[in-house]
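Q: What changes when iron/sulfur cluster is included in the input?
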Amino acid sequence: MTSFAERLIRWQKRHGRHDLPWQNTRDPYRVWLSEIMLQQTQVVTVIPYYQRFLARFPDFDALAAAPADDVMAHWSGLGYYARARNLHACAQAVVAGHGGGFPHDPATIATLPGIGRSTANAIAVFCFGARAPILDGNVKRLLSRHAGIEGWPGASAVESQSWRHAESLLPQAEVATYIQAQMDLGATICTRSKPKCGLCPVAADCVARRDSRTDELPTAKPRRKLPERETTMLVLIESGRVLLLPRPPTGIWGGLLSLPEVAAGRDAEKEAAHLGCRIVSQRLLAAVSHSFTHFRLTITPLLCEVRSADIAAEPGVRWLAAADLAQAALPAPIRKLLAVLLDQPIV
Ligand code: SF4
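A: The predicted holo structure follows.
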């Protein structure tokens, strides 16, 4: 059987992508810009951004001299804005530190802002003919499936193993075609879901395919258990209207309207009184849970029928009828809770 690299190179020449706007050039500015834009974004999304960016900032000098706001405006919509800040800083470092010339050596390229080892190697391969492997998300997936590499690719031991494996597969010649083949194969054939193994040039010795494990490789990131938080929220109802309070501008649901929480050291009566209400009857409802990025919140709703008491309520208190909730800026879990409680389609 011919080597992994030979099969990829042959496939690339017949089936790979050859006319993307950043191909067929060895200009490090264009290659670098495309590599950064493609880091977390798909090719079809990147193309119009790349062309607009290049028209406005045609080279390192133009980008380095541009105001930060202008750079961010041309990035706006691509997401992951640290990339744009690093891009600007990198252009300034290239102009200041290297007299406008881009370094050729992968290790030096990797010292520039926003450029990791894989991106540095890709630039060195495409622009300066280096012989170096890459290991972006697509290539990690391709290699872990083909070689049956176990473990989450982001774990340092697994990453080191993948780098060693990537080094061992490098061909002696046509490295740029080989690297482009890995990128294209990962993006179009060895896709995250439903890989097209029938069209793959390395299917014959692919471990994941042989063992029917394409769904399991690469191994998913281990899920850590989220810390738990609990709160009691008051659903204060008077004459069919529900009391809502604006959340503080920062923190969870910042600035949205939500149900009042029973603060530590208070009971429901005191909390209601603080909001200008007197509880007539109350009923504890089934708890609901919601996961945030860093914790899981369990909300116990306390449904209370109230009368507005003759005392000043906290500023910002809003009484909304069920019919007005659809237009209100509510967090999704609160909207869902109220929809069930008030038996209204407020989604
Ligand atoms: S055979 Fe399937 S799983 Fe294996 S490398 Fe090719 S596309 Fe990926």
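Observations recorded in class: Strands lie at 228-238, 241-246, 257-258, 277-284, 288-291, 296-308, 318-321.
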